Amino acid sequence: MQIFHGLDDVPADLGTTAVTIGNFDGVHRGHQHVLDTLIREARSRDARAVAVTFDPHPAFIHRPEATPELLTGTGEKLARLQAAGVDAVLVLNYTPELAAHTAEDYVARYFVRALHPQVVVVGYDVRFGRDNAGNFNTLVQLGDEHGFDVVGVDDYQIPGPDGRPIISSRCSSTAIRTALTQGDVAAAAHMLGRPHTVVGQVVHGEARGRELGFPTANLGQDSQGMVPADGVYAGWVTVDQHTAVNQHGETDHEGTADHDGARWPAAISVGSNPTFHGIQRVVEAHVIDRHDERVEDFDLYGQQVRVEFVERLRGMVAYEGVEKLVQQMHQDVEDARHVLSEAPAGLHRPLS
Description:
Number of helices: 10
Helix content: 25-40%
Radius of gyration: 22 Å
Mean pLDDT: 85
Order of helices and strands: EEHEHHEHHEHEEEHHEHEEEEEH
Strand order of the largest sheet: 1-4-3-2-5-6
Number of strands: 14
Strand content: 25-35%
Low-confidence stretches: 242-249, 251-257, 292-297, 346-352
Structural class: alpha/beta
Distance between the termini: 14 Å
Shape: elongated
């Protein structure tokens, strides 16, 4: 997949394209529905499938005081778009100047002259241009003027247990954020089509887990991906030093990668360690059923890992004494092992 950071990166010989546009935060099943349509249209026209997205998220410019916590960082978003099968991504630096373009200027500058689209694929609720004045009908009119088709995609309705859509449940980044705020990572996974993931570098913590017999991989505070509500979760830990795409569209090779690609079941704690009167929220994952004779045989410090949240086991509790905490941690491991042994295969596949 090619990644263009601005119009100057788009090659003159790109050829004709099929284009879609969006924030794609989370690249959830609704986004995937649009991207599947985009790719079908591109293949049927012998064109390249191109997704146009923004960095930073437009809310950082328009509503900085109410910016949503992003489901994915730019690097993870690019990796997910690549996994979806698009041929190229145009990442536009979202600025007040970009936001000031009229709908007509926006289409002419960023679509027609830059990408030469044969077709533009969007949801019927698309908005673009200054003050979001452009809508689906505007795009159809501009398509007629500039010579490209417009294909509308209906909202993706979340399938229920019987496979039929739940009509009242629209798949959206906002709905996923709400689920994560409530700790309902299973509902988030249903909308994402995979477990929600936080990606970050393993840093040194206070080593309390190791002292208690439950060593953990602690993620740094600069990790990317919305952290769900405090609690203990069943999930997976993957070292993906060489598969993650950074914000520049490059693979990140910093740090060692002794366990690169390895993936383990885990019991994951999110919170401030109330038993020990902690203050800062941390994400720490205890890998299950790995027994190394030497601590140094399983050293993840400095490596980038993916922490996938499959199911919430319990809320965060302050225990009276270390003994009760250790007892509960043993139970958490058993509960996590049970959950992960029965998790649907389609919801715990790693990024490929």
